[in-house]
Amino acid sequence: MKIAAHQPNFLPNLAFFNKMRLSDLFVVISNLQFEKQEGWQQRHKIKGLNNDIWLTVPVFGSQNQKVKDVLINNQADWRKKHIKTLEMIYGKSKGKEYISEITSVYKKNWKRLIDLNAEMILTIRDILNIKTPVVIDEEVSGIKHELLINICKKYKGDIYLSGVGAREYLDETRLNEIKNQGLNHEFVNNNLTAMYPYSSIHYLFTKGKKWVLDAI
After folding, report:
1. pTM for this one?
2. Which region holds residue 76: left if phi is over 0, alpha if psi is between -120 and 50, else beta?
3. Are 60 and 73 in contact (CB under 8 A)?
């Protein structure tokens, strides 16, 4: 069984769903360090009429916490702002029919960031008709390649699929350690993050579902 995993990004990009589509099981890991401000766990960008627009979920706390423990700051009316922005930017776009499915997620009273992100991920997966099962894991841990090994052991996978970015830390030594655990390893071929830097919903709304499926 081929397994892929990723942190629970907010409104993930196309590369995220490409990796999901190519795997037999996709694990969303929340027992990881929260990346405040510059990370993708609480924000993503769409393309505005003139400039990029960041959709950010305000949160409590500092960077010194796990993603699973991050609470949303609902004192700010961020949900209304996001909905208004999406409807204004994409209300007349080709894929406007999917806007209501995304905005419906905002209308729930979320407390934890992981719960919001997981629901968004599953909603986009279902819109794209990706059949890969998704597991939200709040326990598995490990550093870099050790995490990959632990994920495969927990879910009985024999192949781990990494994104292009993992080439930065998965050197020959670490790949051999994975192999010594009886596991095979693969990298995704295309760098979709570089090709399509915006949130997947930007392409879904502007290009339509068929275009997105062809891209991933």
Report:
1. 0.94
2. beta
3. yes
Evaluate whether 188 touches 19 at the Cβ level (below 8 Å).
yes
Which of these, 113, 157, 165, 107, lies nearest to 133 by C-alpha position? 157
User: How many C-beta neighbours within 10 Å does residue 1 have?
Assistant: 11
Q: Are 138 and 112 in contact (CB under 8 A)?
A: no
Q: Judging by DSSP bridges, how do beta strands 52-56 and 43-47 pair with one another? A: antiparallel
Give yes or no for a contact between 18 and 126, defined as CB atoms under 8 angstroms apart: no
Beta-sheet strand order (sheet of 134-137): 134-137, 25-29, 2-6, 159-162, 184-187
Q: How many CB atoms lie within 10 A of CB 176?
A: 12
User: What span, in angstroms and rounded, lies between the C-alpha atoms of 196 and 194?
Assistant: 6
Taking the domains of the chain in order of start, what are their residue ranges?
Answer: 2-215
pLDDT digits (tens, 9 = 90+) for 81-105: 999 999 999 999 999 999 999 999 9
- Expressed in percent and rounded to 5, the helix, strand and coil fractions of the chain are 45, 20, 40
Does the pLDDT of residue 61 top 80, yes or no?
A: no
Contacts of 154 (CB under 8 A, 6+ apart): 137, 140
- Token couple for 21: 């589509």
What is the amino acid identity at position 214?
Answer: D
